[in-house]
Specification:
Layout (H helix, E strand, L loop, with lengths): L1 H20 L10 E7 L15 E3 L1 E3 L2 E2 L18 E2 L2 E6 L4 H10 L2 E11 L5 E19 L2 E18 L5 E10 L4 E2 L1
Antiparallel strand pairs: 1-2, 1-7, 3-6, 4-5, 6-9, 7-8, 8-9, 9-10, 10-11
Length: 185
């Protein structure tokens, strides 16, 4: 009987560990919303300050640089040319979907765009702003009503705004690159 009781206790503990020890991915929440504005393309956002912007679910960028190593003991690594990969994002089908698709199939260039990560909570404020120039839609994928889209761009400028525990701006940092001219913006 004692063996049976120990087995029940062990089984109960295992159930508690499984039930409360593993947090499902769906339970995670991001602390920012992401909005995209592209010249000539309207979205359906109704968020104050971002009306008619495109609301995004996920965003990713990738940049690479393969520096050359100099054999001289006095020289450091040489700068290679930075390479950008397309900006990828996912979103739900909305008012912007058809224009994005049409721009992709026609090879149209969108002059300017802006991507903003907005901190959620009581004091909604932009924490990262990314300005893009010479944008082209390079990939459009529709799966049910979920879209995966990639954008190429000629230039990018980042602005990061640090926010202190009191919710006030503490510092701002900016930087950008023109990939067509291979120069700092």
């Amino acid at each position: 009987m004692r063996k049976f009781r120990n087995s029940i206790v062990f089984f109960t503990i295992c159930l508690f560990v499984l039930a409360f020890g593993v947090v499902p991915a769906a339970a995670e929440s991001s602390d920012f919303d992401v909005y995209l504005k592209l010249d000539g393309i309207s979205g359906e956002s109704v968020t104050k300050g971002y009306e008619k912007w495109i609301q995004l679910q996920d965003v990713s960028f990738e940049f690479e640089n393969s520096p050359t190593l100099n054999s001289s003991s006095t020289a450091g690594p040489g700068a290679g040319k930075a390479v950008r990969k397309p900006m990828a994002f996912s979103k739900s089908f909305d008012l912007s979907s058809v224009p994005l698709f049409m721009d992709m199939v026609m090879g149209k260039t969108i002059e300017k765009g802006q991507l903003v990560f907005v901190k959620t909570g009581e004091q909604r404020m932009p924490i990262v702003t990314i300005d893009l120039e010479k944008i082209s839609v390079s990939k459009y994928n529709l799966n049910n009503l979920d879209e995966y889209i990639e954008l190429n761009f000629g230039a990018i400028n980042f602005k990061y705004t640090a926010v202190g525990p009191d919710g006030k701006t503490t510092n701002t940092n900016t930087g950008g690159w023109d990939f067509m001219k291979n120069v700092k913006k």
